[in-house]
Write a structure and sequence with these properties.
Length: 385
Amino acid sequence: MSSAAIRLGAQSVFAPVAAYSFSAAQIEDCRRFLEARTANTECVPIVEEAQLAMGADGKIAENGYRFNSIGFQLLATALASGLPALFSDLSAENPRKIECRAHSSIAAAVYIYNTTLRVRFDTIRERTLLVNHQERTIDGFLGIDHRMLDNTLFLNVVLDGMREKQPDAAFYRAELIGRELRLFFLDPASRRVDIYSDPLHSFAAGWCFENQEDSGRSIKAAPCIFTKFGVAVAAAKQEDKLSHIGSNLAGRTGLLVARAAKNTIQMQDVARSVRALAKTSMGFSDDKAVNEAATEQWVAYLSKRGLFRRAASHLIKQALIVGSDLTPRDMYSCNDATLFASRTAYDLLCAVLKDAKTQYKVERDMLQSVAMKMLTPAVKNLPRK
């Protein structure tokens, strides 16, 4: 089991949200970890303000428990849509606004939260808190109709379903961020090293299954593609999603796994796409006007696939500086016009995959979906040079 060095919400108010990864050889370690967490987890109905009121240090005054950043985001949004952002700014919890730290006040943030809680408490009465007694944290905020599918059961359902429907599939990795569990399976027969010019850039098809205990979001299943720099995951279709409501959730999850296991990726299509990406120049040179036009063209390309312009611009820079390089370059060669002129759409794909590994949830899912669209498009969708 490996734990990420960066922890979400590891500030003074919120409890940290640790990220763990379990390899194929650590499947039993994963199971034991999830079982221990399940044993120490309780769904607690909200019946009075004291369960949620913070003390001056941000801990729940009644018992000393702390929200993690995900649990607080969900509950605070239910109280008032702008409350999470305001709380983060006032308490200097937002890592992207370092300049706010000199003008921060946890006491002010807590006061505004407690006041909002008092005024709006009836809007969240009888909802449910997901409480981790071992860590003394509030990890989630659940709806009235929420039906719990704990990650231990989810793991077993997915393993059983894949064993029955795809017996040759190999468990590849489990990723656990807070209460979100993603399970990856690989199709060994699909592994290819002949798709790109460098055989170190291997590709393989597989499946991704996701469950979130900490919110009412969907249980998901989708095909994926494993690459040298990370995994591309397709956006789940409506029929491959389940909400945490209704009866026999475990049984319906089993049916979802059985359906999703039938979805396979044709590697010859992936090979065609990768070769098209590798042949498509990004169009950069030592001419400023040409580079501005090329940047705008690739920003539009990524924007059509769901990215904001700012994120797209960042990825284009990463494609030029790092791209598909397997080893870091020195600072001088990174700004070489000849290097920039050699960059292709494949370098952009690699930049997207690398960046996805540093993001959480919404941003990560979007980037991995964009990578999948790049790996399985029609050649005509690429910008023409």
